[in-house]
Amino acid sequence: MAVRAQDWLQAGSHFPWVPNESLRSTDSLDIFHAEFGDPESPLLLLVHGFPTSSIDWSDVAGELSATHRVCVLDLPGFGFSDKPAGESYTLRRDSELLGYYLTEILGASTGAVVAHDRGDSVALSFAGRSAAGEFGFEVTDLVLSNGNIFLPLSNLTDYQRVLLDPETASSLNFMTPEMFAAGLGLSMFTPQRASDDPTIVALADTFAYNNGMGAMHGTIQYLVERAENEQQWLDGLASLPFKTTLIWGLCDTVAPLRVAAHVWDNYLVNKPGANEFWVLPRANHYLQNDQPREFAHVVQTTLSNTSPAAPGPVSDEVGAPVFVDRSRSLLPSASDVLSRGQG
Predict the structure, then answer these.
(1) pLDDT value of position 121
(2) 3-state secondary structure string, 8-76?
(3) What is the CATH number of the domain that holds 329?
(4) How many secondary structure helices (H) and strands (E) does the chain include?
(5) Per-residue pLDDT, 180
(6) What SS3 class is residue 81?
(7) Bridge partner list, 142
(8) Secondary structure percentages of the chain, helix, strand, coil, to 5
(9) Coil/strand/helix, residue 316
(10) Residues of the chain falling short of pLDDT 70
(11) Which pLDDT belongs to residue 137?
(12) Domain count, the chain
């Protein structure tokens, strides 16, 4: 295992977890987790996506821990957590795990949640269940980034479609962790990253851990669950009382900007909570790796309610984050805009 992955593994530890729903082939799951920063600082939970793991956050954990207690874990089937073959890897179970981790392992009762990709779906499920009082945890802020949270506007890859189908998934058995990581480096990062890039090498190490390639057909089934619950989750999001922020990498073609724009226009622009919409102009799908400094800046800005008064880039620096919009209770009419001299 290379240095980057080894360092991340050594920064954390494991706890055993028995979910409410019976497991198929084991009695419990070992879950990797790590915490950074002052334990007395406000809690910030980072939730990773598919097919990667909490190591996605390694470029931003340090900066975010200057103001927050940063907490991460690897969901079952990912990273340094257990990945039993043939297991059912569901978003609902993962949202239950978040509740257990936060309340039983960390002893927390309130905090912010930042999510990415598949983690957006886990976070939406968790936020709704938390608001209903299921976990004894209060979400103070929710930040969603580059995930297909409205599937009709997504661009699923051919690889995702083949892996999702049980009749074709076996045709991908030739894929090694190194090959898979290299493919991500070429398609999901801007600029592209070669197979010897430390981030890509670390991804290969996490895929290889506990035979992660064998679990991917199971973990990608979240897309089916996503499709079944999508409208319910988005309708629920529109009524949740806490602030919700979208941060999107502009260069993403799998979860393109139109996904975020649709969710903003239809569910967040008039939602209570002073919600915000941001874009990172030089970032692809893994925006927290492509523009880590800018990503951390936006997270800290939106959580501290210190965002700009007006839309636009936050500075003249190339690649500066762009503040797109904030919510309001009611959009003005066109004539109202003209009467105020605004265009």
Answers:
(1) 98
(2) HHHHCEEEEECCCCCCCCCCCEEEEEEEECCCCCCEEEEECCCCCCHHHHCCCHHHHCCCCEEEEECCC
(3) 3.40.50.1820
(4) 13, 10
(5) 98
(6) coil
(7) 113, 244
(8) 40, 15, 40
(9) coil
(10) 341-343
(11) 98
(12) 1
What pLDDT was estimated at residue 229? Answer: 96
Which amino acid is present at 170? S
User: What pLDDT is recorded for position 202?
Assistant: 98
Query: Which tokens in the block code for residue 298?
Result: 């936006």
234 SS3 class: helix
What is the domain extent for residue 20? 3-339
Bridging pattern class, strands 322-326 and 312-313: antiparallel
Identity (one letter) of the amino acid at 249?
Answer: G
Q: What's the token pair of residue 249?
A: 């990498």
CA 9, 145, 36: angle at the middle one, nearest 5?
35
pLDDT, position 60: 98
CB 52, CB 80: distance < 8 Å:
no
Instruction: Give the span between the Cα atoms of 259 and 150, in whole angstroms.
Output: 6
pLDDT at 341: 59
Q: What is the pTM of this model?
A: 0.97
Show the tokens assigned to 292: 């880590």
